[in-house]
Amino acid sequence: MPIRTEPMTVNVGPQHPSTHGVFRLRITFDGEEILEVEPILGYLHRGSEKLAEERNYVQVVTLTDRLDYTSSMINNQAYCLAVEKLLGVEPPLRAKFLRTLVAELQRIASHLVAVGFFIQELGAFGTPLMYAFRSRERILDLFEMLCGARITVSYMRPGGVFADAPPDFWPALTQFMHDFAIEFNEFEQLLLENEILLVRTRGVSPLPPEMAINCSVSGPVLRASGVNWDWRKMDPYDAYDKVEFDVPVGSHWDNYDRFWVRMQEVRQSMRIIDQCVAQIEPGPVRLVDLPLVIRPEAGAEAYGRVEASKGELGFYLVSDGGIAPYRCKIRSPSLINLTVTEHLLVGWKLADMIVSLGSVDINMGEVDR
Amino acid sequence: MNCQLAADNILFENALYRVIYDAVGSFLPCWLAYVAAGLAIMLILVNAVLLGAALVTWFERRLLGRFHNRIGPNRWGPFGLLQPIADLAKLMTKEDLIPAGADKITFSLVPLVMMAPLLLMTAVIPFSKNTALANLNVGVLFILAIGSLTTVAIFMAGWSSNNRYALFGAARAVAVLISYEVPVVISLLGVVMVAGSMSLANIVQAQAIPFLLVQPLALLIFLTGMSAELNRTPFDVAEAESEIIAGYHIEYSGIKFALIFAAETGAMLVVAATIATLFLSGWVGPFAEYIGWFWFLLKTLLVLFVFVWIRATYPRLRVDQIMALSWKFLLPLSLINLAATTLEVFFLRDSAGTLATIDLWIMAGINIPLALGCIFLFGNLVPENAKVLSVRPTTVVVPAVATVEVR
Amino acid sequence: MMQVKALSGDQLAERLEQALPDSVVDKISDEVWVEPARIAEVARFLKEDEDLDFQFLNSVSAVDFIEYFALVYHLTSLRKQHTAIVKAKVYGRDELVVPSVYQVWRGADFQEREIWDLMGIRFAGHPNMKRIMLWEGFEGHPLRKDYL
Amino acid sequence: MYGLAMAKGLMVTLKNLTKKPTTVQYPEERVKQHPRFRGEEFVWYEERCTGCASCAKYCPLGIIKIVTSPSETAPKQGDKYRLEVFDIEIQRCMFCGLCVEACPYDCLFMGSGFEQGKYSRKDMVLHVEDLRQADKHPSTFFRPQLEASGYDPRGGRPLNWREVGRESWRWHQQEKSGLRLEHSPVDTAGSQQESN
Description:
The structure holds four protein chains of four kinds. By secondary structure, chain B is mainly α. Chain B has helices at residues 15-25, 30-67, 83-93, 104-122, 139-147, 150-160, 164-195, 200-206, 211-214, 216-229, 241-244, 254-279, 288-313, 319-348, 357-378. Chain D is of the alpha+beta class. Chain D is elongated and about 85 Å long. At the A-B interface, helix 4, helix 5, helix 7, helix 8 and helix 14 of A face helix 7, helix 11, helix 13 and helix 14 of B.
């Protein structure tokens, strides 16, 4: 007689340490194997889109900081690009380079957080996370030099950035890039070929490219699925058409590839930063003829998108001629990447579930907005 | 009246016990002195173990901090040495929660059931020359048998907590223990065979050269197996922080949690002491007559350092992979080790059945290459699909269009 | 350096009119307005047509223009490397139902749920049409302009 | 394979064991703070303030409250308005610095501190008196003239209102008293200005 078993339903989250914030999964287990997954969102819903309708165009920049709080610079950039598209203006060249530079710094910081927590969820007791944060702290120090804040930067404004970098920023950046190259080598040595990591992640939760595209997955997750698609290449914004970089693409579509793509993207970001530093020239950093209170013409609309660290971040702005956006829809990569949760998790074990979720790298600030 | 301890008494060789016994025996009846001295030495031992566990938590946290490039706890006392006391004070003032629906009696018994085997295990470990509480002639067996009892407590905790995460943790702990007990026992057989005795004191004395060299495979298996049984990284599935939060002790709070925590770190201390005794020649060292305890402590600390070092470096394996490691890797290795040791002992021993130092060197010369060869043969157990790193393109190519044809 | 180009509304409308007559309502510079009741049909055509090949749905948005709601679909073809904007006007305030494009692009899953949650447009054919950000039982749809 | 990469990992952690800690003992030592740091303790120079309430209008959260009344001394001594209330509800402030960016007269500055914990929410409101009496260590955020002078709020002395402006004091005085305006500045009827 076979042993009679019955499935067990477990709530993972919203206070679970590995769900990247207040994300909840209602999972039905058969032993340790996952039978059903239902993601439940909304615990961090702050109504950013509604709030944006009540604020003028520059004030909304402060809201974008709080979407994906590990990559606020890129959020600023996406929003400012959308507003610039709405107005039909272009920022000065130096501002473009500064934006590209800080966006890449932020991408490094964000990927370090993603990779650090990914390994943390694999069970390493904090060491890779601490090493990642050690480097990230330096990046945040650089942001503090630029704009006086570390996380909620509000650095960019429609029509440029709010101020030029202080003179001590450039030597600090050079020093950081030098140190980070060493630290990142160390980080790669610790992780990239680690057998335990390979055994745990290789072949686990593969996401086939057809599935990824159909689910509108974007960013490193899409590239790890073998699709060569990067908005920085495909629709170069700011100064990305003036720098050279490669797009890492995964070959096995699994958790390890998602981790690997992020590690490689950090390397490419370092390349971009070096090129930005070499190419940047003195000049204005903000459009002077743009008033503080912006009034685009009525009926104008724009969809500004960037390749954020999590994926395609888009702002769809509609203007009614007032000082505030009539509608500000945020296309957040984290939320839409979650579409594949069920596909990634069902059939795998509890331990893989946490890791797969970590490999998608969601950020609840952006999922719930 | 002057009491004499019989020479065949199990406690006869314990110098500390005899000092206490003689002192108490001068004014108490002999049977009472026997009990009183026993109680006194138990008190010393229990406190030593608990204090040791407290210091191990400090040592581990401090060392992990340094591995992480942090400072670690350093606020209380010199170098933060009083941190465990502060933690204990905090935990004792916390509410002692018993979840609704929990099996109250089992739930409350768990800390005791966890603590007891740990204290029992310390009884047979020789801290210095003639300082084991009891020099049992089946010491190794005793340690293995008692050591596995902790799992009963873990399962009790998981079952009685009425929490699904705890249940996960308990089931995993039992599965891991059952798998790892086998190679661990077989690996120790080699040590016992070389030493010719199961008594820990005799094993220490038999180590003319540390068994680290004579039995490298056994050390590897024992270290791995004990990591698994202690729920240490990379085998800490039973209390995997990132998966099942704290596993079996998720529902424990206050003093119960403190006891469970102390039992866990205490177990680590005891296992480290066992490894120091079995493989690093225990208290033997220069001036061992006087500072044997120092060598013993040093070696224990060394083993603890290795445990912490591994914890600081590695991610965790999955349950099924841990099982596979045990059955596919450690078990064959332990059997090979057993066979090799048997043959070596059979051919090298003299007529009295003992091994000379030169014989041990010969065995070391055979066993170290054997261990490396075995790891080379069996160590490539990483599944085939994981070995793709070499075929990965080192430089990334960017084709002009999407590489994948989309259906 | 690749450059994604936006398809003009004329091109799109022409293709759509050929395949699905009367589905196009209006066309402006780079967007095409279609009949809301046929949005699923249009979506399937846009995805499966060889020349259009819109495999990737960037975003689904809804805008409340008081007299009507505009549904905005931003699409991208990864192979042909062009983008398009498809819109639909949904008139009315209550009991709005539009066919879901979930069966065409699964990426619409959470976004359609979000539109139902915050804008109050129901999508017929979506397998899990529940509130997503707010809790079940919440009254009203907060992103509407008349919600206060 | 064969655990070689794992051994490499062990070596990396061992190497890091010997490195100096990157963290600091916070209350005793502090990390260096850049002069641009956007901190609490807003610095406000009453002498420069015209009560225009640009900051209040520009604050995304609307936490600045300004009440002015016509000043009796206007325009001779240079005060068109007298400020009665200038409250910043600092507990809701997110330190975006937009108020500083909006201030046309260089009278509001971000502060440089961050240790303003209070036990009650009521204490978290910066009243006009607090702002008047506070030590003035303005952050150089959005104030290029301060940055050019190399001022460091953490180490530096407090600055007074004459040292922080961009334009000449003469210009400022005229601006403040409304003298730059073409028409007579005496008309103050109904100029009670209130925001938020």
